[in-house]
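Teaching assistant here, posting this on the class forum so everyone can see the example we discussed in section. The complex has two components, and the goal was to see what a joint structure prediction looks like when all of them are supplied at once.
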Amino acid sequence: MRLDEGRLDPGGESDRTRLFRVLKEADPSEEFWSGFWLSVRAGIRDSERKGRSLTAGRALLLGSSAGLMAAVAVLALVFLVRPVAHLPSPRTVPLRALAGAEEKAPPPILEDLQSASARVYTFHVGEPADATDVILIVDEKIDI
Amino acid sequence: MNEWDLIRRSQAGDLQAFEVLVREKRNQVFRIARQILGDEEDAKDIAQLVFIRLWQTLGRFREGSSFSAWLHRITVNLAIDCSRRRQGRGRVEAREPAVLEGARAEGGTGGAEMAKGEVQRVFQELAAKLSPRQRAAFVLREIEGFSTEEVSEMLGMRISTVRNHVHAARQTLQEGLRRFFPEYARRRSGDVS
């Protein structure tokens, strides 16, 4: 006896569940479907809109992650570089800066860095009375 | 335009082609969902979700695969999920199918329609005792007439598992017919149009 042939006995005469095969012909009327396509289309557009905003959200999240990482990198550089800025080696301080030291010592100018790819940024931080300069050196070749 | 043309155009984003595809497939999707869920409003909602899901996933469908299996797999999965959620909410009873009831009332002349409506009612009552997967296997194999191999593909089951499900469903339904509807137990399918 094969179970997949719709019968429990070889002749199939006693399989009463064959009765239910007529249900294949039980289709609803055309009126039943009125508005169905409009609902499907609305659902498609809604899902596409959600998909787009999800993509935008992901991009924003990735963007903000990248921004956060950049900020962390900048902060790390500031902490790494700042002590050097406050304690400049004599070699990095030009003579003209030392000459005016009695008036107001300007921040050291680190323009004689040896690396050609280095860029120097100076940030003026704090109240005017207590201003200090944070010097940021960015060099792709710095081995942190 | 044949089915594959409609699929290809739909894959390219042609909503008009997709509307034709929906129109051609909606009755079968609805029938399967209704027989699995036993409720035509839920079945209509599921049919709607099926076509939305189909639109979303059609890009992954490849020529040479069975579109019918693809579509009915979505249908069965969504219907079974819905059925399980309903069971979780404690709503398992089958309701009288209003579409067929309407046809029975309005048809007037239709002794045949009455018979189908009655068969539908009997099926919903007895099939409520089946597990969602047994019910899906029986509906696809015995009512929709797909081969065991096709049902296996649609349900993502081994062929032997499909056979077991169909066999168990048939036994449960036969037993139910014998006990609760002996008048149907004596008839054969040819008696009902």
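For the discussion questions: The first helix of chain B runs from residue 3 to 11. Chain B has a mean pLDDT of 84. Think about how each of these relates to the inputs above.
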